[in-house]
Amino acid sequence: MQTTEQLKELVRRKYGEIALQDRETNQSSCCGSGCCSDEVYNIMTDDYSNVEGYTPDADLGLGCGLPTQFAQIEKGDVVIDLGSGAGNDCFIARAATGDSGKVIGIDFTPAMIEKARANAAQLGFNNVEFREGDIEKMPVSAGVADVIVSNCVLNLVPDKEAVFREMYRVLKPGGHFSISDIVLVGALPQKIREAAEMYAGCVSGAIGKEAYLGLIDASKFTRVLIQKEKAIHLPDDILAQYLDAAGIEEFRGSGTGIYSITVYGEKPLTTQPCCAPGCCS
Q: Residue 40: its pLDDT value, please?
């Protein structure tokens, strides 16, 4: 079993490589993991091409949803994108928040930060900023964000609970998040869960759907709801790299499901104090 730091270094190294690949190479694999499939061109991602602010040079084909579509971003908002990659979701958020708002992208892969900053410079955006850092300990002050978005990133983070705590900290009271992620119903075969390439490919780092939603509830967010849900199909030629024919058949019949969900939640406007009976007015 790899340690937390080993897993994080794996993801950093792999996504550093992905930053140097073109979109077609990334999309032909499982979230850019390199487990290429001849059965499908794109396994996880949704189509961004008609979304305002879409920037082809910043789209590496690594997402599993369209969180900005559901994020209710308003003019003048401060938006934080967790795991911002080459900047595509940031640029879409910028189209919604306008010149009067601000967008901060956070990513811990230096090559991604470099690519995102180059894209922002080419677009001439002076209110989109990219910060290198760990989303388990964000390089952002408390209470600054109106909205947080993230696209297929938290499943890569070993300590998801820490990320939700940080999200709560950096959101303003009354702020909200909309994040797309990979979750499971049932248990993945052990060989897939332990496969490093599949971890970097967004699947074996995922946790159960109910556990995921439980972490959100435990982080004190309110009005939590699933805005979109879709099943993810892993082609046989990907599974064959980790399972024999009998193992694939068993997996198909097990009822295990891999899903992309887009989840919304709010930070309450006020925090109710905990006090003894009769002490509150």
A: 44
What confidence score (pLDDT) does residue 221 get? Answer: 98
The two tokens of residue 193 are 């869960």
Residues 6+ apart with CB under 8 A from 75: 96, 97, 98, 100, 101
- Write down the pLDDT at residue 225: 97
- Can you give the residue ranges of every domain in the chain? 4-266
CA-based nearest residue to 79, from 12, 136, 134, 130: 130
Written as one letter, the residue type at 79 is V
Strand boundaries in 152-273, DSSP class E: 171-185, 207-208, 222-231, 257-266
Look up the pTM and report it: 0.84
Distance from C-alpha of 238 to C-alpha of 251, rounded to nearest angstrom: 13
Tally of CB atoms within 10 A around 202: 27
Reported as half-sphere exposure (CB side, CA atoms, 13 A), residue 61 has a value of 19
> What is the average pLDDT score of the chain?
85
Query: CATH: 3.30.70.20, 2.40.50.320, 3.30.565.10, 3.40.50.150. Which one for 4-266?
Result: 3.40.50.150
Give the span between the Cα atoms of 276 and 188, in whole angstroms: 46
- State yes or no: pLDDT of 75 exceeds 80: yes
